[in-house]
Design brief:
elongated; alpha/beta; eight-stranded mixed sheet; 440 residues; Rossmann fold; binds uridine-5'-diphosphate-xylopyranose
Length: 440
């Protein structure tokens, strides 16, 4: 099939490369000429395992190309995917200007029947809006259909998630269009659900919001564990054995970041409000999440007797391991709070340091975890990169000014750390944090 993809960001580029690898002819379109050039040279503009190899192979085979002209790409394609960004506007609602601009360009270029597939995360009702915009802009009365095909890929495993999705959701009001998209995905041999447009649009937000809710839920339980002498990691483990609950997304810690969860939960709360429904549940998911870094820094302040003049070392800065993405990363909030209180902040991350440096030049960026620990009053794990799992903690302990370990992701074994002579604080692990236990 001939496919055009508007937007060569995470979703667009990965989708394009995977479709090309399945034998389709793909044109990736982006307004940024530098991005287009890089793609045409076989350099993906994002850090994603496996993507460069796949891009290069398909470029060599001539199945993928990139350009800036969406109208030209649309004229050549049977199916046009919209994968542009929907960043939050000032009100927290997604800004649809890029989606609307793409729809207008597609409308102007319509030169025959085409299927327009929206993959961008958009509030329910946007598919109808895309349809109206195309109708308004088309120069000839060609027929077209709009389909919603939400994307569930995670950063760091985007290629894998696109090749092996848990499910493929195809929302279309016209079965003819749905069947064409089913055909496109058939080679993946994964479960497919065909729904109407509105249903598919809600599935995306409902899924992300539910995952965020699981994280905030377990973090609320972590607070109770901390006050009562319980251990949240064991609570989560036992809960997870109930097959109705499952173990995934029940890791208490500093909470969720990234380009999706925070903005999607906020957008979903707005949608509820817009339809006269109560958004409180979703607002609470965000409020609990926002409180995590504040509480974490509070624990450090309590332990160190104030943060002024103290040195705090941070391990990991990206919003999660295996990505250089720092959007809504918890590290940013932790750094902000520490600097505000007069602490000296040292940090190390395998890939995300340059991005954080652009925001916080005052942080002392180090070459590895050991350099971070040197002369620090506290060492805090923020992002659980694999390379932090097996550190030489004897060496770390000996080089610190005071051996205080704050584990923001419950990565380490509290008993082992205490045996090594560390003061250890883990989230919701009061058995080890006895000073935070409340006796009523
Ligand atoms: C997420 C969704 O998983 C994906 O389906 C959607 O398309 C986009 O948003 P992503 O943003 O890449 O993907 O990150 P994900 O791996 O889901 O992690 C999100 C955040 O939640 C991270 O900051 C992570 O540290 C945090 N998290 C995750 C927890 O705090 N606890 C958990 O148990 C799981």
């Amino acid at each position: 099939m001939k496919i055009a993809i508007a937007g060569a960001g995470y979703v667009g580029l990965v989708t394009g490369v995977v479709f090309a690898d399945l034998g389709n002819e793909v044109i990736c379109v982006d307004i940024d000429p530098a991005k287009v050039d890089a793609i045409n040279k076989g350099q993906s503009t994002i850090y994603e395992p496996g993507l460069d190899e796949l891009l290069q192979r398909n470029l060599e085979e001539g199945r993928i190309t990139a350009m800036t002209d969406l109208q030209r790409a649309t004229r050549e394609a049977e199916v046009v995917f919209i994968c542009v960004g929907t960043p939050p506007s000032e009100t927290g609602e997604p800004d649809l200007k890029h989606v609307e601009a793409a729809a207008a360009a597609i409308g102007q270029a319509l030169n025959g029947y085409k299927i327009i597939v929206n993959k961008s995360t958009v509030p329910v009702g946007t598919g109808d809006r895309i349809r109206r915009i195309i109708e308004q802009h088309r120069r000839e009365p060609h027929d077209f259909d709009v389909v919603s095909n939400p994307e569930f890929l995670r950063e760091g495993s985007a290629v894998h998630d696109t090749l092996y999705p848990d499910r493929i959701v195809i929302g279309a009001d016209n079965p003819r269009a749905a069947m064409k998209i089913v055909e496109l995905y058939a080679a993946l041999e994964r479960p497919m659900l065909i729904t109407n447009l509105a249903t598919a649009e809600i599935i995306k937000y409902a899924s992300n919001t539910f995952l965020a809710l699981k994280i905030s839920f377990i973090n609320a339980i972590a607070d109770l564990c901390e006050r009562t002498g319980a251990d949240v990691t064991q609570v989560a483990k036992a809960m997870g054995y109930d097959s109705r609950i499952g173990h995934a997304f029940l890791q208490a810690g500093l909470g969720f970041g990234g380009s999706c969860f925070p903005k999607d939960v906020q957008a979903f709360a707005h949608t509820m409000q817009r339809y006269g429904l109560d958004p409180t549940l979703f607002q609470q998911v965000l409020a609990i999440n926002d409180a995590r870094p504040v509480q974490f820094v509070e624990r450090m302040r309590a332990r160190l007797g104030g943060l002024q003049g103290r040195t705090v070392g941070l391990l990991g800065l990206s919003f999660k391991p295996n990505t250089d993405d720092i959007r809504e990363a918890r590290s940013l909030e932790v750094i902000r709070l520490l600097l505000q209180e007069g602490a000296t902040v040292k940090a190390y991350d395998p890939v995300a340091m340059p991005r954080v440096q652009a925001i916080y030049p005052a942080v002392l960026y180090c070459r590895n975890a050991y350099e971070v620990a040197e002369n620090a009053d506290a060492l805090a794990l923020i992002t659980e990169w694999n390379e932090f799992r097996q550190l030489n903690f004897e060496r770390i302990r000996d080089s610190m000014r005071q051996p205080n370990l704050f584990d923001g992701r419950n990565l380490y074994d509290p008993q082992r750390m205490r045996k090594l002579g560390f003061y250890y604080y883990g989230i919701g692990r009061a058995a080890e944090n006895s000073e935070f236990k409340t006796v009523l």
